[in-house]
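DM between two lab members

TW: hey, do you still have the Alpha-1,2-mannosyltransferase ktr1 entry open?
JB: yeah, one sec
JB: this one, 445 aa:
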Amino acid sequence: MAAGSARIVRYILFASFFLAVLYFASHSSYEGVQLKPSTFGVSPGSSITRPDKSSDDGSGASSWGSKPDGSISNSPGSAKNSPSKPGAGSPKQYQDLAEAPMALSPSDQGWNDLLGTAPGPRMNATFVSLARNSDVWEIARSIRQVEDRFNRRYNYDWVFLNDKPFDATFKKVTSSLVSGKTYYGEIPREHWSFPDFIDQDKARKVREDMAQRKIIYGDSVSYRHMCRFESGFFFRQPLMLNYEWYWRVEPSVELYCDIHYDPFRFMAENKKKYSFVLSLYEYEETIPTLWDSVKKFMKNHPEHIAEGNSMAFLSDDGGEKYNKCHFWSNFEVGNLEWLRSKAYIDFFDSLDQDGGFFYERWGDAPVHSIAAGLLLKKEEIHFFNDIAYYHVPFTHCPTGEKTRLDLRCHCNPKDNFDWKGYSCTSRYFEINGLEKPQGYEEQQE
Ligand SMILES: Nc1nc2c(ncn2[C@@H]2O[C@H](COP(=O)(O)OP(=O)(O)OP(=O)(O)O)[C@@H](O)[C@H]2O)c(=O)[nH]1
Ligand SMILES: *[C@@H]1O[C@H](CO)[C@@H](O)[C@H](O)[C@H]1NC(C)=O
Ligand SMILES: [Mg+2]
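TW: and the structure you got?
JB:
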């Protein structure tokens, strides 16, 4: 009798455990389905074409072929796909939930069925990060955020560039985090050294002087190589020649909102060439003669100056003086063909010859920004309000509560830099005749 009732109790326990498992399985798969519609619930602008929902077969087929293989390949959906890659394939729906496998380890069926691959075409695009081996954990943090908020559903490639060879740890860690293919390039010496027309003594004295005046990175040689490389060479590295679009990502940046559409596709379909999320004034001490050099370029190359450009963003007096406004280049989504154009290369070469990357400390942000401001039509520069971003010490948190809630943002709106006194974003809105988003007045200090 006692043995019999113990069996019944055991039976009841097993049955309720089984029911609980069923409940959780169906509950979580229900949520998986629920997430899908909101995926395209937010339109970035009136003119964007929404991705074609009917093609959501989870194959995530890229509209263009595979890359010539550089190094580590982990293309999603390939047979050799690393088992720990999320984002490959749509969640499978099991008719009979009791048959849904419980994937507990990477080799189990269903391990990869987290959330679906976004439908729609892929652009010829890549993420790009310049980094040192010692930046591995800081860049890992950035990659993880970009993947969680965007790329796990798009699986774009990621190119890493370094003036030294990347080590095994750097490659292992970064390739495990990126859902697309990863490529590692070593920068040739000519792109990371003093050009022969630079007077080394003069450059050294400048660094000593800037060190005394405590100008940030003023005494650094490598920082200057970095700025010159980002200004004139990253887009012509062999690995970058494989792409038309890039998105620059630096170590230790944060993304605070979901990105519900493909920014590369937005750029392509709306004929944008350059974009930003934060803008501000440059330190005068780092660029005392930059504008003189720009004026010289404008005089020598009037053919490159675009009609309907953004001169009014850069200068308050029609081009006589630079107001130091620039887009912050640690975030950029841009067109590589533009950077590889004769106009941009002539611009870079002209500035480079004047030596200010070494005799001063010209940053790639004012260099890119002035180029975008003068060589592009103003409609070709885009402000991504809905990409929430942080790079120490500034935050772009979208203006407008509805946007922030729709995009599941976790930034504090008070931290938004856009409408504060040291930002140039108001000026960008004004010269483009754009209406500032609702609620901007409350964020002015
Ligand atoms: N390979 C390599 N990358 C570098 C070097 N210096 C800087 N970088 C990279 O260049 C980018 C810009 O450098 P940062 O040190 O972030 O410069 P910053 O953004 O002006 O300043 P903070 O982020 O505030 O320190 C980052 O992606 C760095 O990883 C270098 O000497 N070698
Ligand atoms: C991508 O763009 C690069 C640079 O323009 C080009 O060489 C390459 O053929 C393009 N790839 C595809 C598949 O369109
Ligand atoms: Mg940085």
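TW: got it. The longest helix spans residues 2-38. The radius of gyration is 25 Å.
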